[in-house]
Amino acid sequence: MSEIALRQESTPASAPAREDRVEWLQDAVLRNRFLPQPAPDSVFVGDGDFKAVGAEFLGHFIRMGGLLPESRVLDIGCGIGRMAVPLTQYLDFEKGRYSGIDPVEGGIAWCRRFVTPAYPNFAFQRVDIAHDLYNPQGKISGKALKLPYADRHFDFVIMTSIVTHLPPDEVLVYLSEIGRLLRPGGRLFMTAFVVDSVAAANETGRRDPRLAFQRDGDGPCWFVPELPRLAAVGFDDGFLDGALGRAGLTAITKSLGSWRGQAADHYQDVFVAEQRGSGA
């Protein structure tokens, strides 16, 4: 089966058949030695093998998020292309579009050099958003963020490992912008750390030991005392649900991750939210 056949198939498939196709695509990404891959010492976007993590999330975007080959995608915090590279094998060459933004110039430069020339429907842009860890000299406050795209421009927005590094007031701004940018029916795929009673008390005894969150005052934030303040941010259960609603988005999936010590096929918690506005 060719990648083009997978992308362009228009007739509905049975669940087992579709799952076989997604698994085939993920395996093809892992085996494709021609896909660009940065040097290990230049990857600043988190733990794990660059290609394996990208292939895993490609599966999540399709299975959980309902991503379609013809989608117009915005990847907020695209880093050095960990999500973009596998998406090159799924998004339609002519109809699909990808826009990646990040405050780190090195990641954007790498993507422009190694991804865009082969995949011209993939564009990357540096947005100089200030962040204490990743871009401390940035000129744009996260509290006053205005993303450089027109209203209702995107079908699918990705925020993987972004909310996990933001204070709550900036989370509200980001989600408001996403609500503006998504077309009606468009979706947000977002990962987070939701600190519910199970996670907070480590009831299973198997919570990731690196994430011994402690509440910051009255909440809704939780931080890890041994780490820089924005290195890992958790939120009270219910905070992100409410923030999505304020932005005009409705959570259609809330899937808790394995970091809290319970079985899951993803590490962080996952929200899929839909823009159900009129588009006016």
TrEMBL record:
GO terms for molecular function: S-adenosylmethionine-dependent methyltransferase activity. It comes from Sinorhizobium terangae. Keywords: Methyltransferase, S-adenosyl-L-methionine, Transferase. InterPro entries: Methyltransf_11, SAM-dependent_MTases_sf. It comes from the Bacteria. This is Methyltransferase domain-containing protein. One of its GO terms (biological process) is methylation. SUPFAM superfamilies: S-adenosyl-L-methionine-dependent methyltransferases. Signal peptide: none annotated. Residues 74-189 form the Methyltransferase type domain.
